[in-house]
Design brief:
The chain is of the alpha/beta class and 192 residues long. It has six helices and nine strands; from the N terminus they run ββαβαβαββααβαββ.
C-alpha cells in the first residue's frame, strides 16, 4: 500500500507507522529552514523526505530497523539523494549539529508492544520519550537551530511546554488541528 503526500509516494509496511493526520500536520508546518535537518523517529521518511527538498542534508533515524530500511527505499524511489537513514534510539547514534530537528514522537500512555508499538508507546504516562528527547536535543542543535515537535492534547500540552522552557527553550504553537478524540499541536522551540 502506498501513501501519498504532495509529490511523494511512500511505501508502507505493516511494522512501520504509516503517515496519518499527525504526520501530515507536522509536514505541512515545517516552515522556512536551511542547512542540515534531523528527522527523529523517521518511520516511512515522510518528514525527512519533505525536508530534503529544501535542506542541504537530512538524517533520518528510527529505533525500528524496518523503518530505516523503508525510509531508505522511499528516498530512492522518490529520487532523493540528500537524505541518509540509520538506526538510533533517540540520539544514541547521532553525531553533529542540526539547524532543524523534527520529531513526531510516540505519545500514547502505553508500554512497548513490539517494533510497531514503539511508534506510539510513549511510556507509562505517554511523555517519557518526549521528555528524554527534550533533555538531549539541545546538544544537537546549531546556535540558531530549532525543534519542531508534534504534541497531542493527550500529553498535557502545558507540561510539555514547561519541560521545554525548563530546558532553555522559547516555545510557540505553530499549528493545531482537532481530530477524533484529541487535538494535535506543532510546537516550534528555539534555544534561548
Amino acid at each position: 500500500m502506498a501513501v501519498y503526500y504532495g509529490e511523494l509516494e511512500l511505501d508502507a509496511h505493516e511494522n512501520v507507522y504509516a503517515p496519518a493526520e499527525d504526520s501530515f500536520l507536522l509536514a505541512d508546518n515545517l516552515g522556512e529552514f536551511k542547512g542540515c535537518v534531523l528527522d527523529m523517529g523517521t518511520g516511512t521518511g515522510i518528514q525527512a523526505l519533505t525536508a530534503a527538498k529544501r535542506a542541504e542534508h537530512v538524517v533520518g533515524v528510527d529505533v525500528n530497523p524496518e523503518a530505516v530500511e523503508l525510509a531508505r527505499r522511499n528516498a530512492e524511489s522518490n529520487d532523493i539523494d540528500n537524505a541518509d537513514f540509520m538506526v538510533s534510539n533517540l540520539f544514541s547514534n547521532v553525531e553533529g549539529r542540526f539547524d532543524l530537528i523534527i520529531f513526531n514522537p510516540p505519545y500514547l500512555a502505553a508500554e512497548d508492544a513490539g517494533e510497531l508499538g514503539k511508534a506510539w508507546s510513549g511510556g507509562t504516562t505517554g511523555v517519557e520519550v518526549i521528555n528524554r528527547f527534550i533533555e538531549e536535543a539541545g546538544e544537537y542543535l546549531t546556535p540558531e537551530g530549532r525543534i519542531m515537535l508534534l504534541v497531542s492534547s493527550i500529553n498535557r500540552l502545558g507540561k510539555v511546554k514547561e519541560k521545554l522552557a525548563d530546558c532553555g527553550y522559547d516555545v510557540e504553537i505553530t499549528a493545531k488541528e482537532k481530530i477524533f478524540f484529541e487535538e494535535l499541536y506543532v510546537l516550534s522551540a528555539f534555544k534561548r
